[in-house]
Amino acid sequence: MNAHIVSPYLTFAYLIASVCFILALQGLSSPTNARRGNAIGAFGMLVAVVGTLILAGIIDYKWIAAGLIIGSVIGAAMSIWIPMTKMPERIALSHCFGGLAAALVGVVEYHHRGAAIDRFTMGALGLEVFLGFLTFTGSLMAFGKLQGLITGAPVTWKGQNASNITMFCAALVLLVLLVIDPSRSVLFYAMGALGLLVGVLAVLPIGGADMPVVISLLNSYAGLASAATGFALGNNVLIIAGALDGTSGFLLSMKMSKAMNRSFANVLFGAFGQVAPAADGAAGPAANYNLATVEDAVGVLTASQSVIVVPGYGMAVSQAQHAVRELAQALEANGATVKYAIHPVAGRMPGHMNVLLAEANVPYDQLFDLDDINDEFSRTDVALVVGANDVVNPAAKNNPGSPIHGMPVFNVEESRAVIVLKRSMNTGFAGIENDLFVQPNTMMVLGDAKKTLREFISGVKEEAAA
Amino acid sequence: MANELLFGLFIFVLAGFLGHYVIEKVPPLLHTPLMAGTNAISGISLVGSLVAAGSGWGWTATLLGFIAVTCATINTVGGFLITDRMLKMFKRRGGKG
User: Fold this and answer.
1) Per the domain annotation, does B10 fall within a domain?
2) Where in the sequence is the domain holding B41, given as residue range(s)?
3) Model pLDDT for residues A14-25, shown as the tens digit of each residue
4) How far is CA A35 from CA A163, A167, B81, in A?
5) Whole-number pLDDT of residue A274
6) pLDDT (tens digit, 9 = 90+) per residue, A310-326?
7) For a designed S-S bond to B76, which of A321, A341, A375, B43 qualifies (C-beta 3.0 to 4.6 A apart)?
């Protein structure tokens, strides 16, 4: 695509697309308008693609048609049949495709233009290929970790940060050398290879609990790779869409880091899990848990007037969102009010819990953010913790030595009774002891969350009928 | 060329600011659809892939372009569909979205 022979009609089509994309994001400011916004965004995409097919001087449609058809079939299949609990994996894969597409377009451009390339375009292409390949392998790693193909625990080795930073700097040096002399193709391909390597090595050390930050950051990189493509091709709609995606991912990762009271740098280079061995060694008070039976818990639940449910990643793992909603309905039928407290980093990606509960038909006006609900625990009969751990750990507030100290957490221990559903008494991913579990007003019910919730539901219904 | 760079930067920075203000208004409730939606939007790199695959630049370009078209199409088609599927689920009490 040469910037000088672009048809004015095509430029106009891209302008329409850009406006549609902004409207699509604006629609997401409320659930009522969001679907319409998304449709507007899809329309904009259609205008841009059809415009390109007709007006961009394309001469051979065979392979394009094949790619469009195969891509549409795979894309549709991945969207229609994937379960909502697999949404983080789905998003990681799409970052992977986005990064690869941008990187390959960069390689083709470089290959095609050869020595005729100017320095500015070279800089953009270099960034595009580096970021694109980094996003590709980084997202593959994130997918592998989420899917359990690679250990979700942080993988660390000696000199890790030093080697990662060295590789980043090496990529920067290559970029500068390329801008000085764009004809050195070895450097260009070396840079792409470095991107692939950095993607793997940068995500490997990051633990499962930090996934919300990593996925947001990869989202941002995928956007920046698209924007770099726009710079290289002189195409404004790519620059705009890439800037929007880049900003969105960046903002989300800032919010997620803040919700863990950790800096960006700490998530990327901190290797959370390194703290784990020390915490494991000090497993002193492990015997003091107040293990409760289902009957005990049902008794407390049926006697309560107000319940706040605190879901976590465990709810997604056991696919318990429907059981949670059914229990809530049984409790409401019993005269209680039920609310849900959603922590920004509960789950494996931003908004993970909201989507799962929405899938289970929980009305979104029952879902509350951290700041909106945290004062209510002290006035609540029961806090029901379903597979959440770090976000309800009081150590974040009162133990300066804890690795999560300073992270904003729910004040669940202030409610009259706390019921915690947990698979086993092992410490979670992060390997941090949770003082909540040994509080006198906490009842631990061990086992699969969905199964336990089903027993709660029949128990509550029986008591209500009695 | 310097002009083109500056013009591109101009657009990039303004779009970034606009994005910041628009995205700040997205409630945490919709952060997953936001991510899926921005993914679909940045699949616009599809237009670059189309040119790479269809301009008759030799078999390397066509092959890599074809893979890029496939990947970008997965993201645009899949991205808008899954965003819609998610947004459809968000309902108020009483059933209405």
Assistant:
1) no
2) 29-89
3) 999 999 999 999
4) 45, 42, 11
5) 43
6) 999 999 999 999 999 99
7) B43
